[in-house]
Each structure stands twice: as C-alpha cells, then as structure tokens.
Amino acid sequence: MAIAVPEEERMTVYGPFQIPDIVPVAVSIPLGWNTDRIRARVTTIGGDFGGKMETTAQITCLGALAAYVTQRPCSIVYDREEDITTTSKRHPSRIRIKSGVDQNKRIRAVKMDIDLLGGAYFGSSAVVLDSSVKMATGPYRFENVSVRGRALATNHIMPGATRGFGVVQTTFALETHMSRVARQLGIDPLDFRLGHVLKQGDRTSTDAVLRDQVKIPEIVKSVDAMSGYRAKRGRQAGSDATVKRGIGIALYSFGAPHTVKGTLRGRPRPLILRRTGSGDVVILTTITELGQGMVTVFREIASRILDIPIERISMDNPDTDRDPSTMGTGASLGVTLFGKSVERGARKLKDRWDEPGEIEVMEDYVEPGYLEWDDKRVVGDAFHTYSWGAVAAEVSVDLLTCEVQVTGVWAAHDIGRPINDRLAEGQVDGALVQGLGFGLMEVLESKEGILQQGRLRDYAIPTMRDIPAIRQSFVINPYSEGPFGAKSVGEIPTIGAAAALGEAVADALGIEVGRLPITPEYLLDLVRAKETSS
Amino acid sequence: MTIAFVVNGRPVVLETDPLRRLIDVLREDLGLTGVKEGCGEGECGACSVLIDERPALACIVAVGAVEGRHVVTIEGYQERDLFRKVASAFSETGALQCGFCTPGMIIAAGALIDACPDPDEETIREALSGNLCRCTGYNRIVQAVMRASRETKEPSSR
Ligand code: FES
Ligand code: FES
Questions:
Q1: Where in chain B is the domain with CATH 1.10.150.120?
Q2: Partner-chain contact B41 A455, CB within 8 Å
C-alpha cells in the first residue's frame, strides 16, 4: 500500500515502510528530483517480518509516478495475490555439509557449502548471506571450519530479508547433519550436539571470543523439564500401527547486533529525545513499530530512567521531515542497539531536567569499544553478542496420509534479561509458529519464474488448529551492554522450529529428513524409499 | 439500485451496484475501516462482521445480500458489554501484536462465547481456525478467549 500526495514543489508519500529513510531516495530516482523534495511518512505497519523493507519503496515509486503525472493524490493498494506475487520471500537454499569425525567420536572439521537462491535482483541477498555464513556453525565449536556462501542469480522467487535472516536454513541443515552423524556413530543426537556446544571464552567461526556465559546446558535442561524430551525420545515410534509419535529438539543461536565495522558500515543512526515545555517526553526516530512492541519497549526504557509514567512518553510513526535518520530497524537491532541509545539519551535528559522550557538530546548508537572486525579476512567480532535457544517439537504422523500434526512445542531462550516479559514471550510464540509453518506446510513453488501459490487459498499458513499450546521459558543472562541487560529476541525464536520438527519426524518414523517443508508428498517418498530398502 | 440495511444500529440507504462486496461498501462508502481485508477470498477472517448476529465474512458477501438486514462491524460491536470483556482480555493477555487480525478475532471470539459460554481449548482452536494471525502464534489469543469466557460468567465483577 502506498499513497502519494503532490504538493507545490514537493511530494509526501505514506506507506508501511520498515526503513522510511530509503523511501525518499527510491522515489527521487523515477521523479528525477532531489531527495529533500520527498517526505516519507509511515502509516501503521501491521506485521513485517522483513517483507516491508524493499518492496514498499518500489510500490511507493509507482504511486509517486501516478501522482506526478496526474498532479492529484494517488493510492496504490495491492490485493493479496498481487502482494504475494510481488513481495520478497525467504531465500530458498541448498546447503551441503561434510564433517570429519575423530576416533573419540568428535567432529574435528566441518565444511559447509551454502547456496541461497537470490532471484533476479540483488536486493537483500548480500546481508542475508552475510548472516548465513557468519552464523553457519550455530551454537557449536569446531576446530576447523570452512564455509563457502554464494547467492545465485535465478529467474525464480524474489527473496529478501525474512525473519530469521538466513539462519533458519543453515540451522536446519546443521542440526539435521549433526543428528545424522550421531545416529551413525550410535550416540544420542542431543548428547552429541551438547558435546560440541560453545562455552564462554571459546572462539566462534570468525574467531571472536565469547565474552559472556553460554547457557545452552541450562536452556536444554529447561526445555527437557517442560517437554519430557529425554523420557519420550525414541520410545514412541512403535506405539500404534498407523499413527506414530516422535519428538525432536534443536539448539541454535543468533548474533545481533551486527558490528558496525562489519556489516553496518558505520553510518550514523541518531535518535532524539525531547522534553517538551509541559514535561512530556517525545522520542523522535525513524525506527519503526512493526508489531514487535518497539514503541512500548523504548517508552518503557525512557520511563524507567526518567522515573516518569510511561503515559508521559510518546513515540509517533516516523516522518522523514521531522525525525533524525536512524535508518529504521532490522536484523534484531532495535532493542539492544537503539534501546541503549534511548537509555543514554534519557540519562542525559535527566541530568538537565531542571532546565526550563524544551530540552532536546540527540544520541547516536555506541559500540562496545572491545569489538574488533577485520573485513578483509572476515575475522573478529561479527556481532556484539548472541542470543541462544532450544526448542522441542512433538509430532504424530499418520502413516496412511503421511500428514504430520504438531502436538507439542516447548522452547527456552537466553535473550539476556527481557525488558517486557509479555512482549518478549509474544515474540517467541509468534516466531515459533512461523518456523513451524515454514517447516511443515508453507509451500511456494516457481515454475518458469511464475509463482504457483498466489493466494492464501493455496499458500497455507498455520491456523489455530494446526498449532498446539506453546510452553516456554527464559534463562536469564543479563547482557552488560544492553539496556537493562536485554539482548535481541525478534529473529531467534524462528530459527530452530523447523529443525526440531525434522528431528521429531525422524524419531517417529526412523527416517532421515533432508528437505523442508515436510509435506505429505515428500514424506510419502521417504517412507516408500525406506520400505523398498528394508 | 437502492439498497437499505442497518449498520451498527443506523439505517443506511445506498444507491449502488448490488454486486459490490460488502467489505468495500463498509470501508469505502461508510468509512468503517475496522473491517480489514487480509485475503479477499474468505480464507483469513480479518473482515469478520455480524449479519443478523451471525458471524460472516464481508469480503465474500455482496451488498445486495444484506438488504433489510442488520450488519455489525467492530465499530458497532465496541458498544457491547461482551466486547469490553473480550477486548480487555486481549489486551491484558497480550493477544495481539500488529493488530491486523484483532477486529475479526474479537468478533469471532465474541460469537463463540455467545454460542458456547465455557469453551475448552480445543473448542476455541476449532471455532477460531478460520481467523488467521501471522504474529502471535495464537497462544495468547486462546488464553485471552478463555479468560474472557471466565469473566462473562462472573457478571459485572469488573
Ligand atoms: S478478507 Fe475476508 S476472509 Fe480474508
Ligand atoms: S496480531 Fe498481527 S496478524 Fe494477528
């Protein structure tokens, strides 16, 4: 959706822009204008999940051209089919993993080959691939690592940044691979993985030292306590003739924020806190509320520091004429990086609180001084810090129809210390279900470059009936550089659900799953192949 | 053609094509933008309204079909006691994120509680399975509906 309103020398465009700052730049190109003649104002966005980053700017260009030609306000509204066919999707990918195991049954070396299908436009492929590669080895430590990542040009689905940011795919591949290797070695897959988990002081695949505690063992313990994973695992396959049950678990991590010296490239991203004459506080920024609760969290941070009620603090939808250019949010930067700017700004405001009239404080993000990054060698702190998680999924599989029903989901995460538990839990619930949809049912095919699923009728997402109640916990591990100890939560819970699902199906049927989504058709092939081989 | 019906308790008379979708008439002619279009083909429930007190999808109903009938959108539904209970359960439970599905969810949840005052989890998941939500993972929506149904049983305790 976009609305363009021509004014005398200028044009104002309205739309659900994840990064409002890029919209005047985009619109200036077809109009042949300077960017300062274009004002972008953000409407209430709805959900985003990466889909409103680049494509909203493209749609707005069309609206602006129409307004330019007609000299009248124009709006463009896509119906669902137009939307599905023209907006970006998660990168389809093919990942090959080879590992070398020593006589002590430990992985000594891993080689990963990651291909993301990048579509016909470059778009976000570079940043998504960047995350895929830097997070490729997940929560594990391997002495020798080789990762090759490529984004390939295709005439298929147009991909873009999508929640999980290239790590959903690599996690499914790595978890599946490690579990398979464990089975071949005759070791319990969870124990095998736990034996390779990173610890505080270890080095990541980019040679960054992990400064903070890694609480994966506690996380797994919490998931096991909620789910009964260890008691259930491997015991359910033979339970019934036609319906088999299984349970699987996945471990994962997500690095955020990206270090500025690396991926973010060091451009300033300030925000403003203004105390008005009447003593209210306004936060001005082009960081957007995408349904993730950013506005509430920013207001909560400022309210805690300034010790005034949250109702006295406001943050409106962005307006590029009014707000400093913070370049939106994405890749789970918001709370950890910019929430910290809000915290620092609020402290400065507090120091000056007794000054009369209006006071304004501008605050840019600050990176912890100890971070180092060598872009040429791809060595150093790729991320400020990491969030960690584990999820268990339980399934029943109907052998007649090969349909998989998810019967239980349990997850635990270390996201530092959450600022607002309810919002954080909501992020986890929603992300888990998106991960399950991705793993189970969301089929999107392209034939000769044409999408075969253009409507919600044939692009099925999980309904309430497809999903069981979710149980979850947080393992508290305050991050000293984050606001009130918080780390990122937006992407991470999306990452492991599909991998846990694959393991659950493997447990139920005694097969190896190697592809997503696990549709009945794909499962039927696997079951038949198993029957003919035995 | 002239079409007369009642929207949120107010009589409406329109000169329009009877084949236009009810959702378009509600949103564009009457400015009732709480009716959301998520799919336009009856798959997502975002456009849920009540027609003669029964939940219906405004994107697959032609306006000619509501001649002489009572339509209630979330804007009119807000006046009801049940709305207040469901809405406060939604906000206290955190049953929404972006909010796009929320008007339809609340209408569907209210209709469920009307029909079945004490639904268990399975009944809720079945009854609301026609209302899609991409953000919440449904967990807290189910909890909110249970909470609202509990509260409707304790008359005006709050
Ligand atoms: S818009 Fe009517 S059901 Fe989706
Ligand atoms: S809250 Fe966003 S679709 Fe339900």
A1: 81-152
A2: yes
**pLDDT at residue A261, as a whole number:** 62
Pocket of ligand 2 (CB under 6 A): A 47, 291; B 96-101, 133-136
CATH of domain A2-77: 3.30.365.10
Q: What is the CATH number of domain B81-152?
A: 1.10.150.120
Q: Do A426 and B129 touch (CB under 8 A)?
A: no
| Nearest C-alpha in B relative to A421 | B94
Closest-CA residue of chain B to A460: B43
Name B56's Cβ contacts closer than 8 Å, sequence gap at least 6: B48, B49, B50
User: What's the B105 CA to ligand 2 centre distance in angstroms?
Assistant: 9
Q: Residues A300-333: pLDDT tens digits?
A: 999 999 899 999 999 989 998 888 887 776 666 6
Q: Which CATH code of 3.30.365.10, 3.10.180.10, 3.40.50.2020, 3.20.20.105 fits the domain covering A93-258+380-533?
A: 3.30.365.10
CA distance A133 to A110: 13
For the whole model, what pTM was predicted?
A: 0.92
Query: Could you identify the atom of ligand 2 that is nearest to the CA of residue B97?
Result: 1
CB-CB under 8 Å, A467 with B44: no
| Second-level CATH architecture of B2-77 | Roll (3.10)
Contact between A435 and A491 under an 8 Å Cβ cutoff? The reply is: no
Q: What are phi and psi of B59, to 5 degrees?
A: -85, -15
Average pLDDT, chain A: 90
Distance B94 CA to ligand 2 centre (A): 11
Q: Read off the pLDDT of each residue in A179-202 and give the average, rounded to a whole number.
A: 96
HEC profile of B3-35: EEEEECCEEEEEECCCCCEHHHHHHHHCCCCCC
| ipTM field | 0.92
pLDDT at site A306: 86
Distance CA B58, CA B42 (A): 8
Q: State the closest ligand 1 atom to the C-alpha of B57, by its place in the atom list counted from 1.
A: 2
Instruction: For Cα atoms A392, A132, A512, give the angle at the middle one, nearest 5 degrees.
Output: 45
Instruction: Quote the CA–CA distance of B41 and B27 in Å, as a whole number.
Output: 16
Predicted pLDDT of residue A52: 79
Residues on chain B touching A425 (C-beta within 8 angstroms): 94, 140
Bin A355: left if φ > 0, else alpha if -120 < ψ < 50, else beta: beta
Q: Do domains A2-77 and A271-363 have the same CATH topology?
A: yes
Q: Are A193 and A517 in contact (CB under 8 A)?
A: no
Amino acid identity, residue A414?
D
Which token pair is A79? Answer: 């119906």
Ligand 1: nearest atom to the Cα of B47: 2
Q: Which of A206, A40, A150, A162 is nearest to A490 (CA)?
A: A162
Q: For chain A, what are the domain ranges?
A: 2-77, 93-258+380-533, 271-363
Which tokens sit at A430? 């929603």
Across the interface, whether the CB atoms of A426 and B94 are under 8 A apart is answered yes
Task: Kindly report, as residue ranges, where domains of CATH 3.10.20.30 are found in chain B.
Answer: 2-77
Using alpha carbons, list the distances in angstroms from residue B11 to B5, B70, B71: 6, 9, 10
Nearest CB to B140; choose among A80, A291, A426: A426
Fold of A271-363: Aldehyde Oxidoreductase; domain 4 (3.30.365)
* Region of A416 on the Ramachandran plot (φ > 0 left; ψ -120 to 50 alpha; else beta): left
Report the C-alpha gap between A526 and A397 in whole angstroms: 13
* B93 C-beta neighbours (distance < 10 Å), count: 21
CA of B138, nearest ligand number: 2
CA–centroid distance, residue A249 to ligand 2 (Å): 27
